[in-house]
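TOKENISE THE FOLD
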Amino acid sequence: MAYDRYLAIGYPLRYTSMMSGRTCTLLATSTWLSGSLHCAVQTTLTFHLSYCGPNQIQHYFCDAPPILKLACADTSANEMVIFVNIGVVASGCFVLIVLSYVSIACSILRIHTSEGRHRASQTFASHCIVVLCFFVPCVFIYLRPGSK
């Protein structure tokens, strides 16, 4: 989404040639494959654990860390892999989005007409809100200190 907006605002006349069907397919496929790999690693590690005791988690969604609390075996290796995996994926996405949005902001500042700058800013603001609605809850869920 950030790359699409970057091309639309930064290169409006060349957008259709740069954002071809092949580029869209490549972006969508790489996103699906990286997300599938990310989930497969966590799922495989979680399935190899032995479980005992209670079988209820205190969440309305199923996430790996609460499931690891139900395991009888040592889960430190799983927790480390999940932490690194989530850290790499989330940080990588965040850095790429921030870089593309900085480029978009620079492109908006180079627009000479106030009407063009206003239209581009509206599109840019709506996409920033979507990104914030995704990343801010993730920060509060995953980056808060654990209670011991």
User: Anything to note?
Assistant: The two ends are 39 Å apart (CA to CA). The mean pLDDT is 81. Residues 32 and 38 are 10 Å apart (CA to CA). The chain has six helices and no strands.
